[in-house]
Amino acid sequence: TWRDVAKTYGFSEYDAPVLESESLYTRKAGEEVTQQLYNFKDKGDRQVALRPEMTPSLARMVMSKKNGLPLPLKWFSIPQCWRYERMTRGRRREHYQWNMDIWGIQGIQAEAELLSAMVTFFKKVGLSSEDVGIKVNSRLVITEILGSLGVPEDKFAATCVLIDKLEKVPLEAVRDDLTELGLTEEIVIQLTTILTSKSIDSIRESLPPDSEAASQLESLMELAASYGISDWIEFDASVVRGLAYYTGIVFEAFDRTGTLRAIAGGGRYDKLLETFGGEATPAAGFGFGDAVIMELLKDKGILPSFEKSGFDAVVFAMSEDLYGGALRAAILLREAGKSVDVILEPKKTKWVFKHADRIGVRHVILVGGDEWADNEQVSVKDMEGGGQIKVPIAELSAWAKQSVSES
Question: Are 234 and 134 contacting, i.e. CB atoms less than 8 angstroms apart?
Fold first, then answer.
């Protein structure tokens, strides 16, 4: 479904190595990911790590090929990622993650498109806006507030990482880190108070009159209305995301019962390439892991069984000497666009039908009996409708193409 949604929105798939240089992830901003790496020295004495996320790999790829890549880029991937962390419900050390990224678009049209794609996925798996919401904010809100409180600009990213931790730990746990950044307890209290705002109008009182952050957020809400997803989106000033590279709009999907951690998250990261020595390039994206959404779908009773194979047909030779005929039938079906499971060893016909029913195929093709001996006809059993017809093997391709168009 992730792949289907991505392609519906015009995204192209990419992949990257699972093993990267450790330096790709150690950005010196106090991020949790830096402490959760599966890292080691390889045989060439290089410090490497299994990828904990995909965005840095994507940034490296874009930077190396930037002059040869036509912008904008709309790329997606479904990588396997690893983080060494405490395992809890919805949090695993190994997981798959859906990544959607747009490069080269300066405006928040990119974020709106990404949010719409995320909502489309939720709808496809049977969730509604009563089950899931998406909190949005802008890192510029914190930037503008910190600036007004006299915090140096070079401390903004690290401050955001620490502020993000306050949702999980008490102020005392990060007090020393905040002091090291030059933030007094008074500034932190003012900041956390402001970040409890749940409306753009209320946050405006703490922002400059010409606030870019407020304008961004208002425009995003207008675009959400145009996409028809306003009931999924809500402003929450406490959302800052825990990665230092975010620079603008940030967002998190959450379950409305509040029992699970964030389902997905992302935002704008225009300056990420600068951290690797490249030029700043407009970019926005999100990561959507499989662990939390699986728990949510279980809770709602709508998790697919995954028992069905997705194959179209099973082909079975009713005796060993007819196996060559079964292969002829399978080749014709595959050339006609069917996915086919050939029974590779002698079995009873009863077993074949049970097997076909278990894996959820639509048709069973039987090669044998008088119809094959006399006329090279195969028997086609419809596992859904229960009917059975005879088809000459010379006409099997035409039957297969017709059944594809009817399905």
Answer: yes
